Amino acid sequence: MSLRPGPVNIIGAGPTGALLAILLQRRGFGVTLYESRPDPRLHAGESGRSINLAMADRGIHALQMAGVLDRISPELVTMRGRFIHPQGAAPSLQLYGQRPNEVIYSISRHRLNQTLLQVATDQGATVKFEHRMEGADFSKGIAHIRDTRENTIEVPMHALLATDGAGSVMRRHMAEQGLIEAKEAELEHGYKELSIPAKPGGAYAMPPDALHIWPRGNFMLIALPNIDGSFTATLFLAKKGDPSFATLVSETAIDGFLSEYFPDVISLMPDRIAEFQRNPTGFLGTVYAAPWHVRGMGALIGDAAHAIVPFHGQGMNCCFEDCVEFAACVDRNSTWEEVFDQFFAHRKPNTDAIAQMAVENYLEMRERVIDPKFRLQQLLALELERRHPQQFIPRYSMVMFHHEIPYHTAEQRGAVQSQILTDLTAAATSLTEIDYAHAARAIDERLKPIAPM
Ligand SMILES: Cc1cc2nc3c(=O)[nH]c(=O)nc-3n(C[C@H](O)[C@H](O)[C@H](O)COP(=O)(O)OP(=O)(O)OC[C@H]3O[C@@H](n4cnc5c(N)ncnc54)[C@H](O)[C@@H]3O)c2cc1C
Question: CA-CA distances (angstroms) from residue 316 to 60, 324, 335, 338?
């Protein structure tokens, strides 16, 4: 028996809140969203804060399930691989997968949010912009929400869904009142956004069908294409030490740093110094919380429950998967408490797994992509997938191209595969030196078939 539809309040109308509203509204619930910011459909996006996002199979699948993919598709820019710019050597493209559909997409965060909100309101959801949740009293069962005219309204704490992001007010109140355990593990590195405008006439300044990476060991620059011919670049760097955001303050220091490490791209960033000084240094971290709910009163969903670092390009993809899974729990259960319990039990092992894989991917992107041994292992992983398609799927592909493989499974199989790759390449420098008979035995022994072909 599924839950009887009724009113539902959602705090936060970011990607998670908006998609969740669509899925619940479609099931007959009457959704009211409370969002602290003004309506994003009425203004241009904020600059300097994660302008675009990588969308992969999990995100695409969720949009399909919500019936909104057709509205979003025209906004997607295809990225086929990583375009690596090593220091002092020629750049090259490393394909992400080996099938035509094994690609990821860049999308504007602002446009995505605008579209999802439009669909949610078209379906009858109410969105109260400039309404900020400020307090939650679980003993009285009341949430306090303030609108811009300083009026505080009280919302009953019944099925209150908090999709208010990594800094979730709801999560902090739950933890302060001793109802859940929560921890925010801050990364020592932060990020800064810079822009690479389109060339006169609107052409892209670099190949547009890739995610560009300038790996520099302890830091890196990346750039994702936008639909208007520009790229948004992001510098990931330590917050303290040398070099760091703390030392790069003066024009001379910033210019010297960018010229030394990124000489091939600075001519494409005419406003780099002003942007570096003007744009905020963003915070990066992982949120761990357990459980994500207080009885049937309220639950955390999306970044509010499990924000992760952005190095696998999966944060929003994971949040969208949350929404689909949450809706499935609504379909399968008859009380909110059961929905919340089941959602947490199913989802937590998977969000823990992607949190860990996202941290590991930072080292891969900023350092390992230019290591010849790592590159050989990547090529071997693709070759083994060609030879054993039902057993060996590169971990990156499991995460990015296979929504049907849970993150937890990808992490576990990825660890086994990594060991196989390390053994096979221990004494090899090219694919011709690999013992494929040994590979076949190891794969048969250690990896059960997984992929439906
Ligand atoms: C630099 C960077 C790059 C990223 N790149 C990628 C990527 O390439 N691919 C990917 O999949 N993910 C990426 N992510 C992660 C992605 O941005 C998040 O996972 C996603 O935005 C989470 O969505 P959300 O709706 O849960 O939270 P948010 O996007 O944070 O939205 C929360 C919403 O709640 C509102 N809100 C907050 N507090 C309150 C309150 N008290 N009351 C009312 N409203 C409130 C906010 O205004 C906001 O609209 C990246 C993140 C960062 C920082």
Answer: 11, 13, 27, 25
**By the 8 A CB rule, do 45 and 114 touch?**
no
Which segments of the chain have a pLDDT < 70? 45-50, 451-453
- Is the beta carbon of 315 within 6 A of some atom in ligand 1? yes
pLDDT of 368 reads: 86
Q: What three-state secondary structure class fits 217?
A: coil
> d(Cα 309, Cα 209) in Å, to the nearest integer?
24
Going by alpha carbons, the residue nearest to atom 29 of ligand 1 is 14
Nearest of 81, 87, 125, 83 to residue 99 by alpha carbon: 81
For residue 13, the CA-to-ligand 1 centroid distance in Å is 10
Q: What is the pLDDT of residue 2?
A: 80
Res 43: pLDDT: 82
The whole-number pLDDT of residue 277 equals: 97
Q: Which of 60, 316, 347 for a ligand 1 pocket mutation test, highest count of atoms within 8 Å of Cβ?
A: 316
Cβ-contact 164, 11 below 8 angstroms: yes
Residue 453 has what pLDDT?
47
- What pLDDT sits at residue 149? 76
The edge-to-edge listing of strands for the beta sheet with 142-147 is: 131-137, 142-147, 152-156
What integer pLDDT is reported at residue 148 of this predicted model? 79
